[in-house]
Design goal:
The chain is mostly beta strands. 10% of the residues lie in helices and 36% in strands.
């Protein structure tokens, strides 16, 4: 009877638990480089812990990482009554990049009032000097794209610039920023790509530029927009659903924040590198077929480690054949070319999730650099897919952590066997996302018998 009471108590309590886990995977060392998962918070590994969380929402579309904190932007979340008006305030949810624990929220305000614009924080990111910014989705009826800097102590927004669409106003979704938004320490460039809900889309890029200490102006020799005329494949004539752009750091101090080359990742192709003139510099044309992305995802980032250049891009969205919401991590080929790149890993090895997110193609990445206790370089990689989950990985020569300790009954991998493991196991059963750690009694199945086995361990310890 005691076991039954405990079981049903835990069944009721499981919906209240919320904790990140590890992905339980072992990633092979490649060319002297190791990778480990620090934590994961997603559908596949965390079940209802994740799906009951406020960030599991189709309005929580983008996220970034800076100085050890994860920022997840959710539009129109919190109902606030101001006078006779009801405002659906946008909120930024924060998590520790070290362990995934949830931190204090940032309800956003503008000019002292709740910020409640429609899809007001569709895009969130960081500049090169640790400033967090947000921007709304804009339609073809809106002439300007406001870009706001976020006070990460108070949630107050400050307007940085309104990007003018000139004579070619089209829909915009996701932006990128390189340099210093405050213009105190460096120049700054902001870019976005026009999008369309139908093919063939539009060829228009929008860009604003300011020199250090200068004023904002159109980023194409004074013009605020430019139409691309070269595409890959050549049959393309525009960018359709929710394209993303990612500027590449220049090779020296003079060009570091110029954004002269950039990736565009679009609904119906793989990432393509363009230069400031709009010419195609590199593409997946000569990339091995097995490395091509599936199912039209959008998102990529570069990073460097031990003088090697790496490229991270989405392998597939939730519809991928065996690759739901996963990313490839590759070392670029000779001359930093996409052709000849070498795949190191696919993360997570068993997916973040495969649930339809209403067509949100964007997949977010962020990286931070650091050193281990012996002074070796290491990279922290953050991956986020709306409505499916997020995770943090460490990459380097001597990285460690995130491994499952392998204690029988330690379902959640925290090195102890207690009530939290019963909750984790029930969560696996209810969600259908079972893992090897859940087979406590070793019969090849994960079910109520395993729950009772964990309870026995706790009662008899």
């Amino acid at each position: 009877m005691k076991k039954s009471v405990l079981f049903f108590f835990f069944m009721l309590a499981v919906a209240l638990s919320a904790a990140a886990k590890t992905d339980g995977q072992t990633y092979p060392e490649v060319n002297g480089i190791k990778m480990v998962n620090q934590w994961i918070f997603d559908r596949v590994h965390c079940g209802t812990d994740y799906t009951n969380n406020v960030i599991c929402n189709q309005r929580a579309r983008t996220a970034t990482m800076d100085q050890g904190i994860i920022y997840v932007a959710r539009s129109e979340e919190k109902m606030v009554v101001v006078g006779n008006d009801t405002i659906m305030q946008s909120v930024i949810h924060r998590f520790s990049a070290a362990d995934g624990s949830q931190l204090e929220d940032l309800p956003l305000t503008l000019d002292g009032a709740p910020y409640g614009r429609f899809l007001g924080v569709a895009s969130i990111g960081k500049d090169s000097f640790h400033h967090i910014w947000v921007a709304p989705m804009t339609s073809n009826l809106q002439q300007y794209i406001p870009v706001y800097m976020v006070n990460t102590e108070t949630g107050e927004l400050t307007l940085v610039v309104e990007m003018d669409k000139g004579d070619a106003p089209q829909r915009t979704d996701y932006l990128d920023v390189i340099g210093d938004l405050t213009l105190e320490e460096a120049e700054c460039n902001i870019m976005t790509v026009s999008g369309s809900t139908a093919d063939p889309g539009f060829p228009t890029l929008y860009r604003m530029h300011a020199d250090q200490g200068g004023d904002w102006e159109g980023g194409f020799d004074g013009d605020p927009y430019m139409d691309i005329i070269n595409f890959y494949p050549e049959t393309k004539t525009g960018f359709s659903l929710a394209p993303v752009i990612k500027m590449i750091e220049g090779p020296d101090e003079d060009s570091r924040y110029s954004g002269e080359m950039f990736y565009i990742d679009c609904f119906d192709t793989a990432p393509v590198i363009y230069d400031f003139s709009g010419s195609v510099i590199d593409s997946f044309e000569d990339v091995a077929p097995e490395l091509w992305p599936q199912s039209t995802p959008n998102g990529c980032i570069e990073f460097k480690l031990d003088d090697r250049n790496f490229f991270v891009y989405v392998r597939a969205d939730m519809n991928g054949n065996g690759h739901g919401c996963q990313a490839n991590i590759c070392e670029l080929g000779e001359g930093q070319a996409l052709a000849g790149m070498t795949k190191y890993w696919e993360v997570p090895a068993d997916s973040l999730g495969k649930v339809n997110d209403s067509g949100l193609r964007v997949h977010c990445f962020a990286v931070e650099y650091g050193t281990d206790s012996e002074g070796n370089e290491e990279v922290t990689l953050f991956t986020f897919k709306a409505y499916n989950g997020m995770a943090v990985y460490k990459i380097g020569r001597n990285v460690s952590g995130g491994e499952n300790p392998g204690i029988p009954g330690d379902v959640n991998g925290d090195g102890e066997v207690n009530i939290a493991d019963v909750n984790a196991l029930i969560d696996q059963i209810l969600s259908g996302a079972v893992q090897a750690s859940g087979d406590v009694n070793g019969d090849g199945e994960v079910n109520i018998a395993d729950v009772n086995a964990v309870i026995d361990m706790i009662l008899n310890s």
